[in-house]
Amino acid sequence: MVGSHVAQALVGYQLCMTDFVTADATLDIRDPAAVSDVFTDYVPDVVLHLAAATDVDRCEQDPEWAYAVNAVGTQNVALACQTVGALLVYISTGNVFSGEKSEPYTEFDKPDPVNVYGASKLAGEEIVSTLLNRYYIVRAGWMIGGGEKDKKFVGKIVRMILEGKTKVKAVDDKFGSPTYAHDMLRGISQLIDTGYYGLYHMANVGVATRYQIACAIRDILKHLDVEIEPVPSTHFPLPAPRINMEALDNYKLGLLGLNWMQPWHAALKAYLLDNLLPSLSSSVTQELRSEEQ
Predict the structure, then answer these.
(1) In this model, does residue 287 exceed pLDDT 90?
(2) How many CB atoms lie within 10 A of CB 148?
(3) At a CB cut-off of 8 Å and minimum separation 6, what does 148 contact?
(4) Which terminus has fewer CB within 10 Å in the chain: N or C?
């Protein structure tokens, strides 16, 4: 979701991209020796820690997997940063909160996760802040990104509409902050240069439900004949509990005059037109742009 945007968003950096399959170096962060070897080989100045167990339901069903990746894996990365003196940027989530608030969460609200995914990511946060002095913990909202690899909500809705679905159901009782990966990475790039270490929320501005996002996608795609039906979250029963309010307020960034994140609707439109649709069909993108002009 985020890794595919790194090279484009972090222009000017010499990048060492790690992955399980194909990259400059393959790396499983659960293996401390492997992490140490990569850090010894590349001696990074800044580490953008994106590796995570993000399947919320699998985390709930297999807590050992969740903690092995999100907690112990993060410890391995943090200790390696400590050894080479690297700055660590750790990507976290709004799932660290209970979701009981009626408004977006700020960095000064107390975490209280209700599922294993949130608890394991919070454990990662605590490990980073304990082991390191130079770090940024960046909490993101509902991630948007990945282009042709996008199998998450936005990618699914776009494909359903383009494939001719005339009716789409989307949950309308859970609230979050869409976060375009490219925007977040660009914000991180700017934040790194400030030296204002610590914890930040970095989501696109505004609050939305999945239903509102689906409606926005339909409108951006100009498929106004598609009916988007709002349904309660109970319509899609899932193993892991989902919190009601997952939206984030970039409060600290605002206080520092550093909130560069654009409204979520503008970010969604930029993602669809500049990234996702071109990867699916250039003719669709050209048609939409010509209609705009």
Answers:
(1) no
(2) 12
(3) 276, 279, 280
(4) C
- Kindly report the average pLDDT of the chain as a whole number: 93
pLDDT category, 11, cuts 50, 70, 90? confident
CATH of the domain at 214: 3.40.50.720
Q: How many domains does the chain have?
A: 1
Tokens, residue 216: 């926005």
Known catalytic membership, residue 117: yes
| Residue 284 neighbours by CB distance under 10 Å | 17
Residues 6+ apart with CB under 8 A from 184: 2, 138, 140, 202, 203, 261
* 69 Cβ contact list (under 8 Å, min separation 6): 29, 30, 51, 52, 53, 120
Long-range contacts formed by 2-8: CB under 8 A, 24+ apart = 2/50, 2/91, 2/143, 2/145, 2/181, 2/184, 2/185, 3/50, 4/145, 4/146, 4/147, 4/149, 4/181, 5/145, 5/181, 5/182, 5/185, 5/275, 6/48, 6/50, 6/185, 8/182
Nearest to 130 by CA among 93, 95, 81: 81
Strands 227-231 and 142-144: unpaired
Q: Which two tokens stand for residue 269?
A: 């439109």
Pairing status of strand 46-49 against strand 178-180: unpaired
Can you give the residue range of the structural domain that contains 66? 3-292
Options 117, 135, 136, 180, the catalytic residue:
117
pLDDT at 208 over 90: yes
Closest CA relative to residue 153, chosen from 73, 228, 97, 92: 228
